[in-house]
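Why predict the complex rather than its parts? Because the way molecules touch one another can change local conformation, and only a joint prediction can capture that. The input here totals 439 residues.
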Amino acid sequence: MHPNDAELNEYADASVDASRRGEIERHLEACTSCRQVVAELREIARVAATLELRDPPVRSWTRLERAIKLDAATERLPQNSRNSRRTFDLRVQRALREMSVMGRLAAAAALVLATAVGVQMMRGSAARRPASAPAATATAPAPAPAAAAQSVEAELRQAEDHYEKAIQGLEQIANAEQSVFDPRTAATLQKNLAVIDQAISESRAALRTEPASEPAQQSLLENFKAKVALLQDTVALINEMRKGNEAGAARIVSGLKQKGD
Amino acid sequence: MTTADDAEIVARCRAGDADAFETLYRRHAARIYTLACRMAGSAEDGEDLLQEIFLQAYRKLGSFKGDAALGTWIYRLALNHCLDYVRSRRAKMSKLTETLDADTSFEPLAPRETPIARLDLERAIERLPDGAREAFVLHDVEGFDHKEAAALLGIAEGTSKSQVFKARAKLRVLLGKK
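Output of the joint prediction:
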């Protein structure tokens, strides 16, 4: 009778009960499949113990250095401001985490869009090809257009959800910190946001009329991206103003004005 | 015990020497990043954790007493941070981690013709469900015994054993498909 799996696992670890060890050893001498299992388990454990270290990406130090500088600046603030600053940092961190998920999804959505467009173009050129010309991709059937369109719509919806979540997080931060802006900067920000919101509404309206329209899908994603970028600039501006870095704040405001012109 | 070199780096960091903290980071980042990637199961999360851990180390350096080597101190800090992260993620996604039972037996597989490559094992570890991956990384990769791994994970020793067993069974299947 074969030893059970847990016993084989413990035997491979040399931690099986002494009373069972002899019996298992005798069984292994006669049973090729159990011997193979033990050998594989030992190999997994051996290789696991010798895995190599991975180097972090080069940008990791730059990110950390920036975070440390921000942290050091926070430490110099009075206690009340420091607490509100920590809350602010946590909220920014949460929103940015959300955005990194969103970025990956948006990239996936863009890839699906590109694939779907490629498929449509291939289909178009196949339709234009003279009947006598051989099909280049006869062995690789293209996905059904309905399935591809559904996949695009699903990816788009997912990316849209994540954009909206990130936008919501950033908006909450920006709204809570509105008081740091002078009236002119606040007006510029409002104007830029209104332009983007209008563009988002138009893309949505176009998609309602024609849900499979690739330009409308692309334009909605682009407008979401623009809104996230503007809100990121807003948060960066709040950061610079709280640090008292007038030059840094002026650079961001000038960028905002150029975008709004 | 802390070395004279550790003590000097810590003193320079406490005095606000940014280069000293960079030296500390460069010395220990690979070990911490590797641990974070494996515990979290993805390089993206590992990178975020790396940043949070070193930021915490920077903030807590004042409390470093020198009872242990600086590397050990940072490693413990990192391990606790990674465990907090995986615990909180598990709380949010508990249902998704209980999908392993179908694979937890040692079915006969065709014998492998080549030894297991480290890269293949790294990729397969990423595909393990959270609970099994954490126990496997602590026990088989980081070298903790089941009692220590269980204490770190806040589970019973028997659960640590069964999670490692599940992980190995799953890895065997994943690596067998190569």
